[in-house]
Design brief:
Blueprint (H helix, E strand, L loop, with lengths): L2 H9 L6 H64 L16 H21 L68 E4 L4 E4 L14 H12 L5 H10 L6 H26 L4 E12 L6 E11 L9 E6 L4 H7 L6 E4 L6 H5 L3 E4 L1 H14 L3 H19 L5 H29 L5 H11 L1 H4 L13 H17 L5 H19 L4 H11 L21
Parallel strand pairs: 3-6, 6-7
Antiparallel strand pairs: 1-2, 3-4, 4-5
Helix pairs in contact: 1-2, 2-9, 4-16, 6-15, 9-10, 9-12, 10-11, 11-12, 15-16
């Protein structure tokens, strides 16, 4: 109400007695002051509401920051001390310490047996022991005959005859045994023509190197498959009184790597003939020249798709950086389906005609990390939906391509459509800066690429094949720490590609490498494919 206008009108209105006029003016003045106070109170209330909103916003920010820090701390603790597997909790899973527990139980049982044997007053109770697994049938057997001290009966002295035998098999191992092979080349002279004949020298990867191929195979497998640095191999030689200097070992590695390089190059060519590939990369350290410090390089890996016919192939490619140009160089001229993570370095390939496949395991990992930090009904539901998709993949594992495609169209595609709807609805309710919102945005950002596998029967659901191929690199760098030079990184990639491919195809890496080194010096170049560790001859 406009009390000032009322007051002005009252002052100029005639016929109103003065006492009443004064009383009305006093009431109007009081009403005016009350209105002003109410306006001031309303203003302060509005200001208080704004301050409360700011405090609430700040509290929400602190809560989200606290949740984020809690998730990061939980994740780092799990990576440092806990189980890294993304499997859902299962009461049947073995505990991390169960192996030590088994060893302790067996040690206690041995001590009890020892005490029971030393106590003549008590009859030892025969414990029921778990059955022993049979030893592998392919292992060579060596018979050790244990004859009695005499073939005459100790009771009556008469001759005994064999009526049977008990056979006990025990696993045995012979550590590295060094020996020297003396290659003798007799000379034969012909008196008729006055000539001398002698067998040609045995071909070798390293002429005049004074080393057999079995030593080279042992050296490369130990270094690049078992991740033993050269100084440890030098120590192994010392224990056997065999001088193996690191310099000499390094020279053998360098020359053998050059000999094997054509095989690794051919392996990469065959890999690029596949329709679908996996790709990933991981950092490794490289020693910087003249500084004594290390720089960050990257070990790239390219892996064949297990759902395609043919042998499995894995190719490593060391590069001094993570630039996407390295992937473009490796896959130059190739077109097909590429399974990779969300790294931007692959985007140029996708823009150039390569079809992108998104890794479902990477998306699941975002929700799993949230769930491991603080389980909620939403993260539980998300993981349950991922588990349904992977259960279908387990069901289709042994199916042919057509059957797998039909199963995915029947079961996976409807689940994926429901999953996308659920993600969008959950995103609308989630806080914009929360970890849950980030996980949802990450999953939906490449949704067409993530669900592309379900429209076929021979495309993978995730990039686990490439990640598994990089696990040996992660283990190895804890032992050898860094590559000494960029060339050393390329050499390691070459040798690791061959040994890892042999292992993937069920070959014994040492046996394959030894056989290849024996054949390689005299092997014709046009039959190089027959030496590749693919389990069979590749016809091209």
């Amino acid at each position: 109400m406009d009390f000032i206008a009322q007051k002005h009108r009252l002052q100029h209105t005639e016929g109103i007695p003065s006492p009443l006029r004064e009383e009305l003016l006093a009431l109007i003045e009081q009403a005016t002051q009350a209105e002003q106070k109410a306006a001031a109170f309303a203003q302060r209330a509005t200001h208080a509401e704004q301050q409360a909103a700011q405090v609430q916003s700040y509290a929400d920010q602190l809560r989200q920051q606290n949740e984020k820090l809690h998730q990061e701390v939980t994740y780092l603790r799990r990576m440092r001390y806990g189980i890294k597997s993304e499997r859902m909790a299962d009461s049947t899973q073995r505990d991390l310490f169960e192996q030590d527990l088994d060893a302790d139980i067996e040690a206690l049982q041995a001590e009890l047996d020892k005490l029971a044997a030393a106590s003549p007053k008590k009859e030892a109770v025969k414990q029921k022991r778990p059955g022993r697994l049979p030893l592998a049938a392919h292992l060579p057997r060596e018979d050790v005959l244990h004859e009695p001290a005499s073939c005459d009966c100790p009771e009556c002295g008469k001759a005994m005859r064999k009526v049977g035998e008990d056979v006990t098999e025990k696993l045995s191992v012979q550590p590295a045994v060094f020996s020297v092979k003396r290659h003798r080349y007799p000379k034969y002279a012909c008196q008729a023509c006055q000539s001398i004949h002698q067998a040609p020298s045995a071909p070798s990867i390293i002429d005049g190197g004074g080393v057999e191929h079995d030593v080279l195979a042992w050296l490369l497998v130990s270094k690049y498959l078992d991740h033993l640095p050269l100084y440890r191999l030098e120590q192994i030689g010392e224990r056997h009184n065999v001088p193996l200097s690191r310099t000499k070992l390094a020279q053998w590695v360098g020359r053998t790597g050059v000999a094997l390089a054509p095989l690794a190059d051919r392996l990469a060519q065959l890999l690029r003939q596949r329709r679908c590939l996996h790709a990933d990369e991981t950092p490794v350290a490289q020693l910087a020249p003249k500084t004594g410090k290390t720089e960050r390089g990257y070990q790239w890996v390219y892996r064949s798709n297990d759902m395609e016919p043919g042998p499995r192939i894995v190719v490593y490619d060391y590069q001094p950086s993570r630039q996407g140009q390295h992937a473009r160089n490796m896959l130059a001229g190739w077109s097909g389906y590429l399974m990779a993570d969300a790294y931007s370095g692959y985007q140029a390939l996708f823009a150039g005609g390569v079809v992108e496949l998104g890794c479902m395991a990477h998306a699941r990992r975002k929700f799993f990390d949230l769930h491991a930090a603080r389980p909620t009904p939403i993260t539980t539901e998300a993981l349950h939906r991922f588990a349904q998709l992977y259960e279908i993949e387990r069901e289709a594992k042994d199916m042919c391509v057509e059957q797998r495609a039909d199963l995915r169209r029947e079961k996976s595609l409807p689940l994926l459509a429901e999953f996308e709807t659920w993600l969008n609805e959950t995103s609308a309710r989630a806080s914009p800066s929360s970890g849950l919102q980030k996980a949802i945005v990450y999953t939906l950002s490449r949704w067409p690429a993530r669900v592309r596998y379900a429209h076929s029967g021979d495309l993978p659901i995730d990039n686990n094949a490439a990640e598994n191929a990089l696990r040996p690199v992660a283990i190895g760098r804890k032992n050898w720490l860094f590559y000494g030079t960029e060339r050393a990184g390329h050499r390691a990639s070459c040798i690791m590609s061959l040994l890892a491919t042999a292992k993937l195809n069920g070959l014994d890496p040492y046996e394959w490498l030894l056989d290849t080194l024996n054949k390689l010096p005299t092997w014709p170049a046009n039959r190089l494919d027959e030496l590749l560790p693919l389990g069979s001859v590749i016809q091209v």
